[in-house]
Design a protein that fits this description.
Main location: membrane
Radius of gyration: 22 Å
Keywords: Cell membrane, Membrane, Phosphate transport, Transmembrane, Transmembrane helix, Transport
Distance between the termini: 34 Å
CATH superfamily: MetI-like
CATH topology: MetI-like fold
CATH class: Mainly Alpha
Order of helices and strands: HHEEHHHHHHHHHH
Number of strands: 2
Pfam family, one: BPD_transp_1
Strand order of the largest sheet: 1-2
GO biological process, one term: phosphate ion transport
CATH architecture: Orthogonal Bundle
Helix content: over 70%
Shape: globular
Family: Belongs to the binding-protein-dependent transport system permease family. CysTW subfamily.
Structural class: mainly alpha
C-alpha cells in the first residue's frame, strides 16, 4: 500500500508537469522568445501580443518583497512566543494565528479593498490598487502560516541546548537567536520556502489588490499583474485551443518551475547545514 500510494503521488506530480508542458508547447512554438522578452501582454488585441515578461517580473517582485517582509516579523514573533511569553499568553496568541490562517484570502482582499484602498486616493496616489496594497494583503494572509511553522521549529529544539547556553553565560536573546535558531534552521528554511510558495501561488489577493495592469511596477504605488492574476482573470473567457489559452498554460508552467526552484534551493541549503 505504501509503494502504491507513493507511486501514484509521484506519477501525479510528473503528470502535472507533462500536461503543462504539452499545453504550453503551442504557445512556445507560435510566439517564441517574445513570450519571455516582451512586456506587451495584449492577448485580445488584433494582432494579439503575448509578452509576459512584466507578469513574470511582477510575480518575482511580489514573492521576494512579500517573503522579505513576512519572515523577519514572523521570526521575532515566534522568538517572543517561544522564550518570553507565558504559557497562557502563548496559547492565546497561537490560537489567534491559527484562526487567522484559516481565514479565506478573498475576505482579507475584500477588507483591504473596501477600507485601505480608498486611503490611497486621499493621498493623491493615482492607482488605489497597487503593489503596496497587494503586499499588505499578502502580509496578513501569510504571517499566520510563517509564525506557526517557525514557532513549531523553535519549540522542537531540545531544552538542554538552551540550558547549556545559559550555563555558559549567554543571555536569553542570544541563546534564542544563535543557539535555538541554528538548531531549528531546517524548520525555519522550510517556513521560508512554504511562505514563498504560498505568495507566488496566491491569486485572489493580487487579483483584487494589484491593479491588474500588465506592467513592471517602478514604485510601490504602481499597479501590477502577476501570472496567477492573469490566469484567474483570463482563462474562463479564453477560447479553448487558442494561442491565448496555451500562453496561460505557459504561465502556469513558469509558476511551477518557480516553486521547484525554491524547493531545490532549500534542499541545497539544508545539505550544507548538515555538513
Amino acid at each position: 500500500m505504501l509503494l502504491l500510494s507513493s507511486t501514484i503521488a509521484i506519477m501525479a506530480l510528473f503528470g502535472i508537469y507533462a500536461f503543462l508542458i504539452k499545453e504550453s508547447y503551442p504557445a512556445l512554438r507560435d510566439v517564441g522568445a517574445e513570450l519571455f522578452l516582451s512586456d506587451q501582454w495584449y492577448p485580445v488585441w488584433e494582432p494579439p501580443e503575448f509578452g509576459m515578461r512584466a507578469l513574470i517580473i511582477s510575480s518575482l517582485i511580489v514573492t521576494i518583497f512579500g517573503t522579505s517582509l513576512v519572515i523577519p516579523v514572523s521570526y521575532f514573533i515566534a522568538i517572543y512566543l517561544h522564550g518570553y511569553a507565558s504559557s497562557r499568553e502563548k496559547g492565546f496568541i497561537r490560537r489567534i494565528f491559527e484562526y487567522l490562517s484559516g481565514m479565506p484570502s478573498v475576505v482579507i482582499a475584500f477588507v483591504f479593498l473596501a477600507f485601505v484602498s480608498p486611503l490611497f486616493v486621499k493621498f493623491g496616489i493615482y492607482s488605489p490598487q497597487n503593489l503596496l496594497l497587494a503586499l499588505m494583503g499578502l502580509f496578513f494572509l501569510t504571517i499566520p502560516l510563517a509564525v506557526t511553522l517557525i514557532l513549531e521549529s523553535l519549540d522542537s529544539v531540545p531544552i538542554q541546548l538552551e540550558e547549556a547556553s545559559a550555563a555558559l553565560g549567554a543571555k536569553e536573546f542570544t541563546t534564542y537567536t544563535k543557539i535555538t535558531s541554528r538548531a531549528a534552521l531546517p524548520g525555519i528554511l522550510n517556513a521560508i520556502v512554504l511562505t514563498a510558495n504560498r505568495i507566488v501561488g496566491e491569486t485572489i489577493v493580487v487579483l483584487l489588490l494589484g491593479g491588474g495592469a500588465a506592467m513592471v511596477p517602478r514604485s510601490p504605488f504602481d499597479p501590477m499583474k502577476t501570472l496567477t492574476a492573469a490566469i484567474a482573470s483570463e482563462m474562463p473567457e479564453t477560447p479553448r485551443g487558442s494561442t491565448h489559452y496555451h500562453a496561460l498554460f505557459a504561465a502556469g508552467l513558469i509558476l511551477i518551475i518557480f516553486s521547484t526552484i525554491f524547493e531545490l534551493i532549500s534542499m541545497q541549503i539544508l545539505r550544507r547545514h548538515k555538513k
